[in-house]
């Protein structure tokens, strides 16, 4: 059987169980998701999210999926419901929150969102990131699951105008998950999602970890 570590290298994503207790998952569902809003960003300041980010980090370090110096740098709550039944085109995740306006070499496309500075880090920094999508509801094929293009993370930055054609020519996989499972994903992996055909809650706590290697800019949060 291929390990999650090996699958991440080859495919850029893997599905893993987690040790996040049911009562913690219930508290996340009840407290960090805003009704009628598809996504809420920069949640690492919430004590519950901080605690979950740390516990997942410890699990992933123990499994060899993250290096010992890894830090959580981002947390987003996503929900897909009948009222927020959104879809997302093929893309890579490239913009991440920083402590201030980006001035270091290699940090591009600086922008401020909701008072927080973002930029696209250099490729080596992007390659050191791992997204962990903790599913708080079951996500099957009818609930607008994540679609991934396996192996695309190994091809660096892909022009946004070519992402859809790239995915079409290389094939897509549905990344399904049960409640309490996590999808691990390299942010450079091409991914997308369709609208749900049977919309219900699809609550995901999306955490991003960095390897902990020195970077040219400070992250907005580092846990």
- Average pLDDT reading: 94
The number of strands is 13
> What is the H-and-E element order?
HEHEHEEEEEHEEHEEEE
Number of helices: 5
- Which class of secondary structure composition applies to the elements? alpha+beta
Oligomer designation: single chain
- Count of all domains: 1
Strand content: 25-35%
Calculate the terminal CA-CA distance, rounded to whole Å: 32 Å
What is Rg? 16 Å
CATH architecture: Sandwich
Low-confidence runs = none
Largest sheet: spatial strand order:
1-11-8-13-3-2
CATH class label: Mainly Beta
- The percent range for helix content is 10-25%
CATH topology: Jelly Rolls
Say which CATH homologous superfamily is assigned. Answer: q2cbj1_9rhob like domain
- Report on the biggest sheet: 6 strands, antiparallel
Name the overall outline. globular
List keywords for this structure.
223 residues, alpha+beta, Jelly Rolls, six-stranded antiparallel beta sheet, four-stranded antiparallel beta sheet, 13 strands
